[in-house]
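Quick one:
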Amino acid sequence: MKRNLVLVLIFAPWICACSNLASVRTFASATSTVTNSTSLLLNDDQGTCSRRMAAEIEFYRVAKMDAAASEAEASQTDCSVAEAQTKRILAYNSVLENYASALSAISQDNYVTVNGEVKDVDGILSSLNSAKLTAVTADQKSAVEAIVGFVGTAALEVYRHAKIADALSPQNVKAAKEISAAIRSAVHDYDAQLAQEGKAYDVAITAVSVVASNERLAVQEYLLRMTDIQSSLSQRRQAVDAYNKALASMGTALDAAAADVVNPSFHEISDSVVSYAKQAYAVQVSFRKAFIN
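Output:
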């Protein structure tokens, strides 16, 4: 009996630690899923503005409205805003991606590795800043510096299992939340681009139907194509909505994962972490359907 009690006392801390780290590992995996999905969104973001412009120009041509088509062609420089927005999302996403990777490695007692681009904090901040977009706030800048600094230190100083509390320090948790919120804000702007694209198609369909009655075959082909594009657009907006909801849940899940490290317990993975993970994997599925043709 005494021997069994001694064994329990020896292994209890180890069992407890493993139970607690399950939330961290699940959180890290879910966040990696979200950041990996972002690349699909970014690829689409780069084409959204140009597609919208092309749709406007095409319907003017089909409707024999050449002057309006020429005017639309001249305004295509507006796509520079979308390009700046894409760079900003990519920069924030790379920082969050590396933080999730570091959490995963440390929680599994592995070495932390860093994407080369993330070591260059000045380069990241340069990608975030653009005269075309709203200015990066001081809190957002500090958050990027904090996470980039932590991941770099973790790699250089060979952080392992014992450093999990440092990885989930209040400063790092706050910074990760700030970056997540910044991505949501940028993606909100992307969704606004999708909404504008949808309005352009609506206008195109209505105008072509009314004005170009003398070009029946061309109009019918155009309308069928626009209907398909609108359906695809609707799928993309639904996927983006799911993505934003997952990011909105990230902060609560991160708090729960950090709490599991600071306050050891034998419970299962935190409910909020499980919920976040389910949302993350649902995002992955919806993005593949919406963005991979």
